[in-house]
Amino acid sequence: MNKRFFAWFAVVSLVLAGAVSYFADSDPDGLDHVTEQHGIAEHAREHPLAGSPLADYAVGGDDRFTGLAGVLGVVATLALAGGLFWLLRKRSDVR
């Protein structure tokens, strides 16, 4: 795998996150619908991160920014994964 592949992977991921996130924003989403149908939702509790800035596929609770929430999620995931791989690669170079 080369840098060009990862660059294209990042670009495609960001475009998909920004565009497709709006289609995944139905209310209720598929998982919520199934849990409501089978009575599982009655036992659900609020997630500890429910009040976080990117909760419920939105930025600050505003549904108009669903695509932005998707892009921010991809950026955070790529940064975390990239940092982890960079650290692991550095450790393997030391040996």
UniProtKB/TrEMBL annotation:
Signal peptide start-end: 1-24
Instruction: Locate the transmembrane regions by residue number.
Output: 65-88
Q: Keywords for this entry?
A: Cell membrane, Membrane, Signal, Transmembrane, Transmembrane helix
GO cellular component annotations, sorted alphabetically? Answer: plasma membrane
Q: Which Pfam families match?
A: PDGLE
Alphabetical list of InterPro entries matching this protein: PDGLE_dom
Q: What sequence ranges are listed for the domain PDGLE?
A: 3-90
**Where does this chain mainly localize?**
membrane
Q: Does the keyword Repeat apply?
A: no
User: What subcellular locations does the record give?
Assistant: Cell membrane
Its name, as the record gives it, is Cobalt/nickel transport protein
Taxonomic lineage per UniProt? Bacteria, Bacillati, Actinomycetota, Actinomycetes, Pseudonocardiales
